[in-house]
Amino acid sequence: MTTRSSILLAAVGWAVLVVGCGGGGDADRRAEDPADAGREADAGDTADAGESPDAGPVVDGGSPENPTLGLSCTVGGGCSEFIGSGSGSIWVDGSAAGPERYAGKTLCIKPGTYSYLALHGVKGTAEKPVIVTNCGGQAVFNNTGNSPVGITGASRYLRLTGTGSTHAYGLVAGTAGGNQAHIDLRDGTSDVEIDHVEVRGNPNGGVGIAFRTYPTCAGTWARGTWAQYNTRIHDTYIHDTVYEGIYIGPSHHGWVAGQSYTPGFDCGGGKRVSEADVIGVEVVGNRVENTGNDAIQVGGALQGMTLRRNFIKNYGLNNNSSHSGGITVNPGSKGVIDSNWIETDQPRNTQGIMFQGLGGSLVMNNIIIGARTGTLFNRTTDVNLQIASPRPVAYHHNTVVSSSVEGAYVFCNLMGGNVVTFSNNIVAGAPTTHAGNGGNTACLDLFARTNLVSTQVAAAGFRDAAAKDFHLLSSSAAVDKGVTLTGVVDFDHDGAQRLPPYDYGAYVAAAGIPLVTPPPQGER
Q1: 359 vs 387: CA distance, rounded Å
Q2: Looking at residue 81, what DSSP letter applies?
Q3: Integer CA distances (angstroms), 5 to 88, 205, 255, in order
Q4: φ, ψ dihedrals at 467, nearest 5°
Q5: Closest alpha carbon to 35 in 383, 331, 378, 271
Q6: Full 3-state SS string of 193-216
Q7: Are 118 and 7 in contact (CB under 8 A)?
Q8: Within 10 A of 194 (CB to CB), how many other CB atoms are there?
Q9: Are 423 and 450 in contact (CB under 8 A)?
Q10: How large is the C-alpha radius of gyration of the chain?
Q11: 67 — alpha (psi -120 to 50), left (phi > 0) or beta?
Q12: Helix (H, G, I), strand (E, B) or coil at 67
């Protein structure tokens, strides 16, 4: 471990590519050329999580009311060694060391304000990851010219955690400069867990947490040579970012052009290099507020994607229709999007959920409030991965309220034969409940038959919509009207068990005590 007074950019290779961050496709659905819809959009790919997901209770996360216990700040009292003494900068270069140097070690950072934390080529093992944490108080990183926190050089098997004090967020990625990410993970970095960390955005910064490696035109980090594994981000607080809050995976996954989409990393001269797969993504219990672009964006997550119990408020503040999703599922991604709270005070050009992923995904128990479009199904990207048989996208038990234009919008012409199985949802208070490119909504299967759909919020029978309490009154027309989805959606947004006859929407009516405490939902 070496401590230095300034970032050695050449050694770390920290000239990050963040300006012009990816997003969710062309949100002007009414363009005359439907082929322009979603062009060059960021897309993600996930796992086989839509078939028979575990929709059971999930632990609470990200709440300042639930601080964690701190470490004893002595070597042997929880810390293996110290890498920060309270000020200056932190540089840990493990590129010349084997995993035995850091495997199973807890690297502690004493409280204070630092100029940066740089981990380069630091490796643990799957059984003995490296833990990097604060110790005894908050450690804050501010950098006016670059990223305050960077993990590079094919670092692997790490946990970056702010649980080393009684602060809810013991590590703080503060000021960033040059439009760079506040926490930047790249250059072949894999198998990293981030938790109990705060990102404080600022006008000169960029993405909150950027975890993606783009291939080189020589083929390094390309699909088939490398993959990003086991990405876990949970219990973080990310706010006031210029671009995305959380940006995982590259943005143009796939290897076959189609559905008005060209995958791959553009090397110029007609050469494109396939972007690597992202295997295993968990984004759970995070609080993401006031982001210029998408709040959470996942791309290329081919296997094992779970986006669950995140609280998202006020996203798409840059008013860029292509980058304004509360949750954006980009091409090549498949998995479960479950029990998220997605809210915006001003609709701008926002989509509560922008879906551009793979058939076989499951979207359930989400509450979407105030977006321009509640959920936009821009395309499915099975064709870009040469998946032959169309598979449905399951959209069940969501509550979509007060969308300013439409509750759901779909590009059936770009779905590649996939349909959206739309059951047991409540879509209320949008001037147009659902619409499609060219007036075609045929791929919204079951929309008119197994959902409560109305232009009036009052029609849903919510307990107190003005207070954002979307539990159902016993007299609601949504009670006992749903199709039974046992084995598909077994629990509701609160974690209460669903039993036949199923109710519409994200909540079970008149449920007893929830099986879990729901995540913090801000001011409701």
Answers
A1: 9
A2: E
A3: 6, 21, 43
A4: -95, 10
A5: 378
A6: EEECEEEECCCCCCCCEEECCCCC
A7: yes
A8: 27
A9: yes
A10: 22
A11: beta
A12: coil
**Residue among 57, 21, 56 nearest 41 (CA):** 21
Contact present, 42 and 325 (Cβ < 8 Å) = no
% the chain with pLDDT above 90? 81
Residue with tokens 């947004």: 493
| pLDDT score for 165 | 94
Residue by residue, DSSP assigns 204-268 as T---SEEE--PPPTTSTTBTTT--EEEEEEES-EEEEESS-SEEES-S---SS--SS---SEEEE
DSSP letter (8 states) at residue 256: S
* Number of helices and strands in the chain (H, E): 1, 41
- What is the token pair recorded at 180? 């760079």
For residue 474, count other CB atoms closer than 10 A to its CB: 10
CA distance 277 to 79: 35
Cα torsion at 161, 167, 173, 174 (round to 10°)?
Answer: 180
| DSSP of 315-362 | --TT--GGG-EEEEE-TT--EEEES-EEE-SS-TT-EEEEE-S-TT-E
193 strand-pairing partners: 159, 232
Q: List, in sequence order, every residue forming a beta bridge with 118; answer none if it has no partner.
A: 91, 150
Question: Which two structure tokens, joined as six digits, stand for 35?
Answer: 């082929």
> What HEC string does 48-59 produce?
CCCCCCCCCCCC
Is-contact 363 353, C-beta < 8 A?
yes
End-to-end CA separation in angstroms for the chain: 47
Tokens of 395: 């959209």
Tokens at residue 60, please?
């609470």
Q: Residue 150: which of 301, 15, 244 has the closest Cα?
A: 15
CA–CA dist 296, 313 (Å, integer): 11
Other CB atoms within a 10 A radius of the CB of residue 81 amount to 11
In terms of DSSP bridges, do strands 116-120 and 89-93 run parallel, antiparallel, or are they unpaired? parallel
Are residues 34 and 437 in contact, defined by beta-carbon separation less than 8 angstroms? yes
CA distance 304 to 282: 8
Q: In what order do the strands lie in the sheet with 452-454?
A: 112-114, 139-141, 171-173, 197-200, 237-241, 287-291, 311-313, 341-343, 367-369, 399-401, 426-428, 452-454
Q: Would the pTM of this model clear 0.85, i.e. be above it?
A: yes
Least reliable range by pLDDT among 62-76, 429-443, 491-505: 62-76
83-132 per-position pLDDT tens digit: 999 999 999 999 999 878 999 999 999 999 999 999 999 999 999 999 99
Phi, psi of 228 (to 5 degrees): -90, 120
The answer on pLDDT for 503 being more than 70 is yes
Q: What is the DSSP letter of 384?
A: G
**pLDDT tens by residue, 347-372:** 999 999 999 999 999 999 999 999 99
From residue 500, alpha-carbon distances to 399, 485, 511 in Å are 19, 9, 13
